[in-house]
Specification:
It is built from 13 helices and 10 strands. With about 280 residues, it is an alpha/beta fold. The protein has a 5-stranded mixed beta sheet with strand order 3-2-1-4-5, with helices on both faces.
């Protein structure tokens, strides 16, 4: 039996696989990004989720997480889980590797994550051969929920957006400039807060101003993140993440319009990761 986790900044999807029966049990918990969590918090979250689950026959844990790109960050996650699961072997990978395995499978291609944040890599069918430069939400995260939300907030409060859109925004959120700045600069996780405005963008996606904003956001991602990985535009470009999924139509249109080869668009990679590891078990 194995336990697999796919963790972003906002939430973590877990799946427990019984190799003998092929039965899969799914769990959902909070995001466990080592840049904004602690070893103790990882332990407490695992304890909360799995306190009543019998893991007597658990043979391995595979954790794919946002922010798990350094040995220090991987150790934070593994030590937090090890405190609960004791002798169980734990492997921690960056979420980009999970996306690549889930989307590209054994094929050469580009794997992209568009959620609260964003990232991409070139995968050759067995390993990542080149990662995009990831600068985080303050300097990067093009194409992400944060990027979308930031563009909308910017347009509303600088009164660049049409008056009716500004009115609709203020009517929905009742948010003064003072309150907005307090949320961003005085409270934790401002990236998640700004990304939450992507809901408003989705509700108004047919408005010409919003439609252009969405296309511009995805075009920024393709030009600044994907194109350096795929300069000839000859590789299939795959996507996973909430933003890629919920703005699937706009993403597809931007891809085709700019000459990129569209691959898969999956809401969550967890199911494909489960299939990947289940196949590996069967080969053993």
């Amino acid at each position: 039996m194995i336990l697999i986790a796919e963790s972003g900044s906002s939430k973590t999807d877990w799946v427990y696989i019984d190799a003998k029966t092929s039965r899969k049990t799914y769990f959902e918990g909070i995001g466990l990004n080592p840049y904004n969590t602690t070893q103790e918090a990882v332990y407490q979250e695992a304890k909360r989720l799995f306190h009543s689950v019998d893991f007597q026959h658990l043979s391995h844990i595979y954790f794919y997480g946002s922010g798990c790109s350094t040995s220090k960050n991987k150790t934070l996650i593994s030590d937090g889980l090890q405190a609960l699961f004791k002798e169980v072997p734990i492997s921690v990978f960056h979420d980009m590797e999970g996306a690549a395995r889930a989307l590209c499978k054994t094929e050469n291609g580009i794997a992209c994550i568009l959620g609260t944040g964003s990232n991409a890599c070139h995968y050759n069918g067995s390993e990542i051969v080149k990662n995009a430069v990831s600068l985080g939400y303050l300097l990067g995260d093009e194409g992400s929920g944060f990027h979308l939300g930031k563009k909308m907030v910017h347009a509303v409060y600088l009164k660049i957006a049409p008056k009716e859109l500004i009115h609709h925004f203020q009517e929905k959120y009742q948010l003064s400039l003072e309150d907005l700045l307090a949320e961003i600069y005085k409270k934790p996780y401002p990236n998640k807060y700004i990304a939450s405005f992507s809901i408003f963008i989705g509700e108004n996606r047919k408005h010409p101003f919003v439609a252009d904003l969405i296309q511009e956001t995805f075009l920024d991602f393709l030009k600044l993140v994907v194109l350096p990985l795929n300069p000839k535009k000859d590789l299939a470009v795959h996507f996973t993440g909430s933003i890629a999924w919920f703005f699937k139509q706009e993403l597809e249109e931007t891809m085709v319009k700019n000459g990129f080869q569209l691959g898969l668009i999956k809401q969550k990679p967890i199911e494909e990761l489960a299939n990947y590891h289940f196949t590996q078990i069967r080969k053993q």
